[in-house]
Amino acid sequence: xxxxxxxxxxxxxxxxxxxxxxxxxxxxxxxxxxxxxxxxxxxxxxxxxxxxxxxxxxxxxxxxxxxxxxxxxxxxxxxxxxxxxxxxxxxxxxxxxxxxxxxxxxxxxxxxxxxxxxxx
Amino acid sequence: xxxxxxxxxxxxxxxxxxxxxxxxxxxxxxxxxxxxxxxxxxxxxxxxxxxxxxxxxxxxxxxxxxxxxxxxxxxxxxxxxxxxxxxxxxxxxxxxxxxxxxxxxxx
Lengths: 120, 107
Fold this sequence. Notes:
By secondary structure, chain A is mainly β. Helix content of chain A is 0%, strand content 50%.
């Protein structure tokens, strides 16, 4: 059974930094691209970032480009999101999601999410 | 960016009903569309991908259709556990990967 467990969410001041982690199990981690998706309360999900299976390709939403960095450790089966220069609008529940690997980008497994609150 | 618009934003239904939700793309996205179900306090769950392919483990009362710019999700014989919010998501013209605004199915 696929399991994704996020951690690292916290309350942080504007301009601060945070690192989110996602522990993956139940599948061959380095066979799959992985994503971060966030969701503000009562709003639609918002895709944040993608990393290819080998970490060779990384993509970001315009809203986080230059501030967030996605990475992965295929030896430890972990996905990370390094978040810098945090803004109020980054407040959200952050999910890691497994890509379906079907040629296009669908999210076929999700974690339970970790909450990031940016507030002074 | 290609925008995704869902309608209606909410629908009232009863157990046993047939419910249809529409998702429109601002440009042709072929069949690169997914549908997700989200219950309160839970992560979204993939139901349909590639417009009409049923994700493993999803009941057959869920079906998807469409191509180009207009897509539908149909729930036949609505069950109590189907009351939730449904989102469409386009999977092409990446990045970004955009979701629709959601449709809440309620009693």
